[in-house]
Amino acid sequence: METSIGPSEQRRAAACAMWALSTLITTVSIGLALGRVGGSNSPAFVAMVLSGLVLLLNATGIWFAASTCPRSWLDRLVLCGAHLIAPVLTSCAWSDGGWSVGLWTLTMVLGGVSGGVAWAVSTDVPASFVDACVPPQASPVVSASEELVDNGPSLPESPPSRLDADVRQRSIRRRLDDAESIELEWLAEFPPGEQQVTLHIPIAPPLNTTPVVECEPLDDSEVEVHVGAAYPYGLRLDCRRRGDASSAVQIPIGILVESAGQPAAAA
User: Which of 83, 194, 71 is nearest to 124 (CA)?
Assistant: First the structure.
């Protein structure tokens, strides 16, 4: 069967290439600056051009990465700032006063930390999860006096490439005034030999605010469940089983999602 790469994966790959190239150029720029501080006649103009190219590559990578995930403008601003700290500091280094080796070391440390934070933020939500933000059977919002129970499809054996949305068993969504709550029952499927699995659970339509999440296994105390990330449009749960992992098991996970806040006013 032929496998195709979607636009989200292509944009993310382009962003990775941009960041890898900008890291290489930043390294060259820092090397030129260190040589200049040491007394050699390194061409400052070349280093400035390289720093400007780093800015352009980082900005392009940020745009590609932001287009793969439904981020708010504040999230994009933080992501942009984290990426641009290193090249901006590199560009500022070409002052007539010169920089010491200690300041260059600080520049490299700040650049590494900011790049790591930016990378973690940009790759926190995988593209396949974003593409699955609208599940096959979404649970509409109902009033406090009503409940909609969604019994998911039966669970015959199926290929491992299916989305997590295919293994949902039950969901109830309620709204009372400006608060919403969602009760979910999800299956954590452990293949033979695997002790840890990650569940990506979409929420559609998205909540108004970042939710508070509680989760626990419903019938097996040997499984630990932790909330890896919570967004208005979805959750990431990390499930780990202890003891013998030689056999495949399916563990139902109970999840309670609570969110408070008024929806944004329509323009």
Answer: 71
C-alpha 256/C-alpha 216 separation (Å) is 9
Give the list of residues 6+ apart from residue 50 with CB closer than 8 angstroms, or none.
Answer: 25, 26, 28, 29, 32
Greatest mean pLDDT range, 31-35, 151-155, 199-203: 199-203
pTM score over 0.70: no
User: Alpha carbon of 29 to those of 20, 32, 117: distances in Å?
Assistant: 14, 5, 22
Alpha-carbon gap, residue 44 to 23, rounded angstroms:
19
Q: Please name the amino acid found at residue 56.
A: L
Q: Cα 253 to the chain's mean position, in Å?
A: 22
| Extents of the domains making up the chain | 7-127, 132-260
Q: How confident is the model at residue 17 (pLDDT cuts 50, 70, 90)?
A: low
Q: First CA to last CA across the chain, in angstroms?
A: 46
On whether the 132-260 domain is CATH 3.30.310.50, my answer is no
pLDDT in tens, 203-233: 888 888 889 999 999 876 688 899 988 998 8
